[in-house]
Design a protein that fits this description.
Elements: E1 5-7, E2 11-13, H1 19-22, E3 28-29, H2 30-37, H3 53-67, E4 76-77, H4 79-87, H5 95-103, H6 111-137, H7 141-165, H8 176-186, H9 193-207
Antiparallel strand pairs: 1-2, 3-4
Helix pairs in contact: 2-3, 7-9, 8-9
Length: 215
């Protein structure tokens, strides 16, 4: 008995289709798609071509894909979409069919694998977004500690301003900030009047209600 071209999905067959020709077609009909994916020549009668469990599975897959609107067109489908969908089923396809796509440099996608990849990427980005949001809503311990230290120093500055420089509650137009800056300069250090004033404003805003100002 003669043995024809060996196909991955079919075993031996003398009716192997010309895949190099078929992959260049703009579209396949439902019947053509089923025949080509199961290693059969659409131009020949199915009675003279073998069939097996893989062929039956692929036939059912393509029938369902057409029936449930997986393909945009209910009558025909592009070879790329058809084979990419079949690849996702993990049912073996004819090796010669896949070789023909590779030879024509046509990119095929396993939609199941692609979906898993996109799902994993989406989960990664969601986790990253959550971590970023947590970072924004909860300052780091270093930042929190620094803010506490600044707040303590501002309270100390306010206490000195009231006790040593006779700071009053309506101090804004007074020379308190200027006098404090001058005293700091006399000690050989430098802190300008505007900076002193800014810290006093923050100190009054946070602790002004508790302070006993000079009267």
């Amino acid at each position: 008995m003669k043995s024809g071209k060996k196909l991955a999905a079919e075993g031996g067959s003398e009716a192997a289709p010309d895949y190099d020709f078929w992959v260049t077609m703009p579209s396949w009909t439902r019947e053509e798609a089923i025949a080509l994916l199961t290693g059969r020549d659409p131009a020949k009668s199915n009675r003279h071509q073998p069939s097996n469990s893989n062929a039956l599975k692929l036939g059912l897959l393509i029938e369902r894909a057409f029936s449930f609107g997986v393909f945009p067109n209910a009558v025909q489908v592009s070879p790329n979409d058809c084979v990419s969908t079949a690849l996702s089923s993990n049912v073996p396809l004819p090796r010669e069919l896949l070789k023909a796509f590779k030879k024509k440099k046509i990119d095929l996608k396993n939609w199941k694998t692609e979906c898993e990849r996109l799902t994993a990427e989406n989960e990664r980005l969601s986790k990253l977004a959550h971590e970023t949001e947590q970072t924004k809503s909860k300052p780091s311990e270093n930042v929190t500690s620094l803010k506490k230290k600044i707040g303590s120093l501002q309270i100390a500055l306010l206490g000195v301003a009231i006790h040593k420089f006779r700071m009053k509650k309506d101090w804004q137009n007074s020379s308190v900030a200027k006098n404090i800056a001058s005293s700091i300069a006399e000690a050989g250090l430098k802190l300008d009047e505007d900076t002193v004033r800014a810290h006093l404003i923050e100190a009054v805003a946070t602790k002004g209600n508790d302070a006993i100002f000079y009267s």
